[in-house]
Amino acid sequence: MHFEILVEGQSDLTTLSILMEKIVGPYRSPNTWKIHKHRGIGKIPEFPKSEPNRNDPTLLHNLPSKLRAYGKSLRQDEVVVVLVDLDDRQECSVFKQQLSNLLFDCDPKPRTLFRIAIEELEAWFLGDEKAIKAAYPNANQKILDTYQQDSQCGTWEKLADAIHQGGFDALSKERTRSRKVLQQKLTWAKMIAPQMNVEHNRSPSFKCFCNALRNLSTN
User: Fold this and answer.
1) Can you give the pTM of this predicted structure?
2) Which end of the chain has the lower number of beta carbons within 10 A, N or C?
3) Domains of the chain from N-terminus onward
4) Is-contact 9 37, C-beta < 8 A?
């Protein structure tokens, strides 16, 4: 099976580049994948059938047109995987249905798997405390103990408080806050993902992601 994976940004790409072999086995043995990053999640267009704005590189803005293109190009042994964060949306099922509805405008419809990290991808890191402690031996255990798995609690901020010097407050005081946060998320991906044990992760959304890929993969 070949997976065409669409993600929000660089930290997601880095994380999956490390984890895919742990999930479905070594590249080309026999599964393959290509991960496509975007510049943020964005929003589903008001008119999904229209051509996307070339000045908007976000995932959801471009997703309708990409799905239509994939529908015309994918082979039977290829599948699109769309991974996005739930963020502050209240209902995961409603969001997933909104994504799935985009396939109605595709002729033919590409084989597509929609998966949602709850609340954010950092929840997958927090689902493996041993990996965090291996990457950051001085991680604040008291803060890690307060995290409720896959809750909408400010997930990346919680991780920052546990492992970043000065915590979230230090990042929030940076003049280039957005860029600094993105850099830190990328660093966390590089440090924590290699340590993760995909068989023993507490995150339901991560387990759902892994199980879905494995069910589709070629054994």
Assistant:
1) 0.96
2) C
3) 2-121+201-216 (3.40.50), 122-195 (no CATH)
4) yes
